[in-house]
From TrEMBL:
Classification of source organism: Eukaryota, Viridiplantae, Streptophyta, Embryophyta, Tracheophyta
Keyword GTP-binding tagged: no
Region (Disordered): 35-86
GO CC terms of this entry: endosome; membrane
Pfam families from the UniProt entry: PX (PF00787), Vps5 (PF09325)
SUPFAM superfamilies recorded: BAR/IMD domain-like, PX domain
One function term, GO molecular function aspect: phosphatidylinositol binding
SMART domains: PX (SM00312)
Coiled-coil parts of chain: 286-320
Low complexity bias: start-end ranges: 50-59, 70-86
Residue stretches making up the PX domain: 103-220
Protein's name in the database: PX domain-containing protein
InterPro entries cross-referenced by the UniProt entry: AH/BAR_dom_sf, PX_dom, PX_dom_sf, SNX2A/B, Vps5_C
């Protein structure tokens, strides 16, 4: 509706259309120039600028590129041909299309309702996907609990990987925000989450993601999902473990961390091993000796602190630019009212001349306000990379915790083996003092040797899992470093270019006003001379 540098005289034409008599606030003035702003007000600023940086990107689909927004600028010619690293990674994904849409309210099954006739409700979303090279689209209904189940399964299957974190439940926000706004934000966050999973080199081709996106019907929940059931199961197994009936965890269990209370004895043993190592100063039989990893781990912690600071400053910048746009719009409104007063109360020719100049200033201020809003949209688009990589650090910590947990399991099993071997030596020494041997002690030695064999098998499985997690950490650190370089280069180029272009647009607008009002300035100088 308006150009970045209107020709001389355009300001008068625009200002003639301003509803001066009805202009009571900033929004009514700005809406004259842009219908998209007609619903905005100082209390309800435009959505792109009002949202914090952490909520800026409401969908995986990027907002209009800088080339689209600032196409009139000669600097944007080269920007239109470039594609973002995120788009390039999405292009290599196994999925060509993923969308979360059509939120619906559904009722829980009658069996889950504690009060007759008052079944609880939940929101389900339509998840639509298509694999690359396959024109068919699969659509399934999923609720937020299904996304939680997916995240849990991925955490178990991809230990050591930087698994993208799922959106939080946000119970507080769901109570504070309007329902439609909350559902819209969650829908966008879930869609972005699925795209991040699809872009991951390992997770994007996994059966877990494929089943989630394509399997019809409700997602089956893992057995004994509630904490109470796991604790009761663990408490029931504990006596058998203490009596030696289940002295060693099976190999399929040691490759997963001891959690949830299902294996209380293992939890106690690993807690004891951790305390002995950390507080007792006893060197464990196996320690983390990868100096390169330890150095990278420390650098990642330092990087996280820097990211946190930069992300906070980016949010402050977004707020400042929003305030600048609102203030500039309020200035335009003030000059609109001044123009109305000068026009209605004009007695002298000088008042009418001032009214014309006030129109020009009001026009330029409102246009500058809109430019600030557009600039803020681009600022959010590019600087959101800071917040996104800050969020990735949660996945990094989880992957490093997987490594530490796997190492602790190996250390505990090796300590168990040393303890068992020591018990055998003591029993054999005591049995040798009895003529003919002590059959009871010899039988116990035989049982301990069987336990050692089972523990040795478990240790080998745990050691392989530890080495697998180490390799996953190495691969993921390399991938994150590469993607970080790509993303930050794109962020800096886009941010600097958009700042320069929009600053140029604002300067062009005010230079036009300066040129149009220069005649009035010369006349004022001549009047003062005479």
């Amino acid at each position: 509706m308006m150009s970045s540098s209107p020709p001389a005289g355009a300001a008068d034409g625009d200002m003639e259309t301003l509803p001066l008599a009805a202009a009571s606030d900033y929004a009514s003035v700005v809406s004259t120039f842009d219908p998209l702003l007609s619903s905005s007000s100082p209390a309800s600023p435009p959505t792109p600028a009002a949202s914090p940086l952490s909520r800026a990107s409401s969908s995986f689909v990027d907002p209009p590129s800088y080339a689209d927004v600032a196409a009139s600028s000669p600097r944007s010619a080269s920007a239109s041909s470039s594609s973002s690293p995120r788009s390039a990674r999405a292009a290599t994904s196994e999925y060509s299309y993923i969308a979360v849409s059509d939120p619906e309210t559904e009722a829980e099954a009658a069996a889950t309702s504690l009060v007759p006739g008052s079944a609880p409700t939940y929101i389900s979303y339509l998840v639509t996907s298509a694999r690359r090279g396959d024109h068919r689209r699969h659509s399934v209904r999923r609720r937020f609990r299904d996304f939680v189940t997916l995240a849990d399964r991925l955490a178990e299957s991809f230990r050591g990987h930087f698994v993208p974190p799922r959106p939080d439940k946000n119970t507080v926000e769901s109570q504070v925000m309007q329902r439609d706004e909350f559902v819209a934000q969650r829908r966008a966050a879930l869609e972005r989450y699925l795209w991040r999973l699809a872009e991951h080199p390992a997770i994007g081709t996994s059966d877990e993601l494929r089943v989630f996106l394509q399997a019809e019907g409700k997602m089956p929940l893992p057995s004994s999902t509630d904490v109470a059931s796991r604790m009761l199961d663990g408490a029931a197994r504990l006596p058998r473990q203490l009596l030696g009936e289940e002295a060693v965890a099976p190999p399929q269990d040691v490759v997963q961390p001891a959690k949830g209370g299902r294996d209380l004895l293992r939890i106690f043993k690993e807690l004891k091993q951790s305390m002995v190592t950390d507080w007792g100063g006893v060197r464990p039989p196996l320690v983390e000796e990868d100096k390169e990893f330890l150095e990278k781990k420390q650098k990642m912690q330092d990087w996280e602190q820097q990211l946190s600071s930069a992300s906070q400053q980016a949010e402050a910048l977004v707020k400042a630019q929003q305030d600048m746009g609102d203030t500039m719009g309020a200035l335009g409104l003030a000059f609109v009212k001044l123009t109305k007063f000068e026009t209605e109360e004009a007695i002298y020719e000088s008042q009418r001349i001032r009214a014309v100049d006030s129109k020009r200033i009001a026009t330029a201020a409102v246009k500058a306000s809109r430019t600030c809003r557009d600039l803020n949209t681009q600022t959010v688009k590019y600087l959101d990379t800071l917040h996104e990589h800050f969020g990735i650090m949660l996945s990094v910590h989880t992957a490093f915790s997987d490594r530490a947990s796997a190492l602790l399991t190996v250390q505990t099993l090796m300590s168990d083996l040393a303890s068992l071997q020591s018990r055998i030596e003591k029993l054999e020494a005591a049995s040798s003092k009895v003529f003919g041997g002590d059959r009871t002690r010899l039988r116990k030695v035989h049982e301990l040797r069987e336990t050692i064999r089972a523990t040795e098998d478990a240790k080998c499985c745990a050691l392989r899992e530890y080495e697998r997690i180490k390799e996953n950490n190495k691969i993921e650190l390399s991938r994150l470093d590469r993607e970080r370089r790509e993303d930050f280069l794109e962020m800096l180029k886009g941010y600097v270019t958009s700042q320069a272009s929009y600053a140029e647009k604002i300067v062009d607008g005010w230079e036009t006003v300066a040129e149009e009002t220069s005649g009035y300035a010369r006349r004022s100088s001549n009047d003062a001379t005479y």
